[in-house]
Amino acid sequence: GENTPNFTATYTGFKNGQDSAVIDSGSLSFTPADTSAYDAGSYVDEIQVSGDYADTNYDFVYDNADAGDLTVTKATVTITPNNTSREYGENTPNFTATYTGFKNGQDSAVIDAGSLSFTPADTSSTDVGTYADTINVSGDYADTNYDFVYDNADAGDLTVTKAIVTITPDNASREYGENTPNYTATYTGF
């Protein structure tokens, strides 16, 4: 996913202690011109050289029989758990993570295999409050072009908010002249 590096060449055959600094004119060019979309791996004899060098004392031969090898290493993607919240008594939400480091406009959809898991499992009886740095991420992701780092130094926060209990007064009745009965109410939301 990175830009093509500056390719270089090795010169053999200069005389009298000279080097490429004495070349009168011209330049070298290399193929391939762009390697940013190459998958990770080794490409043997991939880097070819050509040029239009001219010099009073030298002729130039471009040796592509022994072309250069191009090695593309895996890029690193960091996976950081996101903060999340839920109401007290509700099921654990689907935890999520943020990915940084994908190349060439790619995202997690290109991952070859594996899955993420989060801890803690969190239960619906966890009390109200903010539990800082408690959501950790791990996984067994594998991909041709990426290595994965699970960033739990910046673990996610779990916030449990208060549940709402609604109190509704019940209907009541009494006979004329009797004392007021004990009123009652119905609670919903526990």
Short key terms for the protein model shown above:
single chain, about 190 residues, mainly beta, four-stranded mixed β-sheet
Structure in words:
- With 190 residues, this protein is an all-beta fold.
- The protein is 0% helix and 36% strand.
- The protein is built from no helices and twelve strands.
- The chain has strands at residues 28-31, 41-51, 68-72, 75-81, 84-87, 97-100, 116-119, 129-139, 146-150, 156-161, 166-169, 185-188.
- The chain has a four-stranded mixed beta sheet with strand order 5-10-8-7, with no helix packed on it. A three-stranded antiparallel beta sheet has the order 1-2-3, with no helix packed on it. Strands 6-4-9 form a three-stranded mixed beta sheet, with no helix packed on it.
- The chain is rod-shaped, with a radius of gyration of 34 Å.
Layout of helices and strands, plus pairs?
Layout (H helix, E strand, L loop, with lengths): L27 E4 L9 E11 L16 E5 L2 E7 L2 E4 L9 E4 L15 E4 L9 E11 L6 E5 L5 E6 L4 E4 L15 E4 L2
Parallel strand pairs: 4-9, 5-10
Antiparallel strand pairs: 1-2, 2-3, 4-6, 7-8, 8-10, 11-12
